[in-house]
Amino acid sequence: MPVTTKEREKVAAVFSGACTQKKVCPVKDIMASYGDKWTMYTVLLLGQHQKMRFNELRCHISGISQRMLTVTLRSLEEDGIVLRTLYPEIPPRVEYQLTELGESLLKPLLQLAIWAEENVGEVLKARKKYGKKNKEE
């Protein structure tokens, strides 16, 4: 589906404000925080399961280290995307869930995930074609 003129105008409006050291560029800032594979996958998992414990998350995210998951969750908590609830039990129990702000982030991430699922074949073909072209040069 082609991008409409109105949608292109929205993109232009986002980039029209000059980003300086004193003015945060929202697109750069958000993409730097949430554009990595671990953060996106964590948000998508919490959106699917609603509440998860640390080890549940770690088991579902193939390849993530304990430290990386800790850093990811702390960053999401700091930004108000994830709520961490500590239950005063023995042993202590901690659960993570998306906040209302996190739920609002889930929607565009789901759109991206759907796009990726629908287009992975085309992307892989393009990569293969690009690799062959560069080997010939």
TrEMBL record:
MF term (GO), any: DNA binding
Top-level taxon of origin: Bacteria
Keywords: DNA-binding, Transcription, Transcription regulation
Signal peptide: none
SUPFAM superfamilies: Winged helix' DNA-binding domain
InterPro entries registered for this protein in UniProt: HTH_HxlR, WH-like_DNA-bd_sf, WH_DNA-bd_sf
Gene3D superfamilies in the cross-refs: Winged helix-like DNA-binding domain superfamily/Winged helix DNA-binding domain (1.10.10.10)
Every HTH hxlR-type domain range: 25-124
PANTHER family xref list: TRANSCRIPTIONAL REGULATOR, MARR FAMILY, TRANSCRIPTIONAL REGULATORY PROTEIN
Protein's name in the database: Helix-turn-helix transcriptional regulator
Organism: Ilyomonas limi
